[in-house]
Amino acid sequence: MKAIVCNEFAPVSQLTLQDMPDPKASRGKVVVDVAAAGVNFPDSLLVQGLYQMKPDLPFIPGSEIAGTISEIGEGVPHLKVGQKVIGLCMLGGYAEKVVLPASHVIPLPDGIPLDEASALVTAHATAHHALKQRADLSSTDTLLVTGAAGGTGLAAVQIGKLMGATVIAVCSTDEKCQVAKDNGADICINYTGIDLKAAIKEHTKGKGVDVVYECVGGDMFHICSRSMAWNGRLLVIGFAGGEIPKFPVNLSLVKGFSVVGVFWGSFTQHQPQDFMANMKELLTWYVQGKIKVIVDERFALADAVDAINKVTDRKVKGKVVITL
């Protein structure tokens, strides 16, 4: 099979398209012929050796896929060859085939295209877990989303609005603001050239924000930490801006808010029943048309480097997908 391979921790440009052995389905596992793979910001960190997890070399990046089951190992009675599925693979997604534990494969309902399905897991599932389990978001809350036109930010806008919150999107351009508004944001702030802290204060009538979905880091995190309401929850999603901020803990004490870490990958392992319940709810919402994956651009497998770079350069409005 063809696959994108990381042979050493290095810049994304060093990834290579090469032939790899076809995977086999051992007991409890299935092989999926990949139709599409979602591209995510951590993919870039992973191949550079900058992520929390450092895989053994060589490895194939790619954490979420959609496709068709082509082989089933023993002890998997609930799945069948030819079935369309979503797969959570952590590694191996940028390839023509991937082997997965049956527990990490979810049958795909009719009506969800495979390219959209491949981009549903990480972004929407992260946002769903963050707002539901970590923030306990309610209809009386104001939710502020940074990086709101990106994959996971846009998912948070959609889900936050679906959960009844007042959603403030923060974006770097008017074009991105329009995307966020089209996906449910009540207010969008283009932070370029303005005092963002003052704008947040104005839009919240001085109260501050109940929940922040923060995926940029750096100065953005510091502004958000100074814009929290009493009993607020500042969700730490990621650091797409490249800088991991240092947090002055006294701010949390004085302003009475919580800083809450969100690591969806660990959630799936520590709370598998909650993860599966979340996925069932997400897929139901999708079929009902209440949420939607916005695919910005589709790339061929051979162009995976360009796909990852588009995400890391923060030029994406929605999700980037590799199609096979």
Automatic annotation (TrEMBL):
Highest taxon above the source species: Bacteria
GO molecular function: quinone reductase (NADPH) activity
Oxidoreductase as UniProt keyword: yes
UniProt signal peptide: none
UniProt domain Enoyl reductase (ER): residue ranges: 10-322
EC number in record: 1.6.5.5
Enzyme class: oxidoreductase
UniProt keyword list: Oxidoreductase
Protein name as catalogued: NADPH2:quinone reductase
Organism: Brumicola pallidula DSM 14239 = ACAM 615
Encoding gene (name): qor
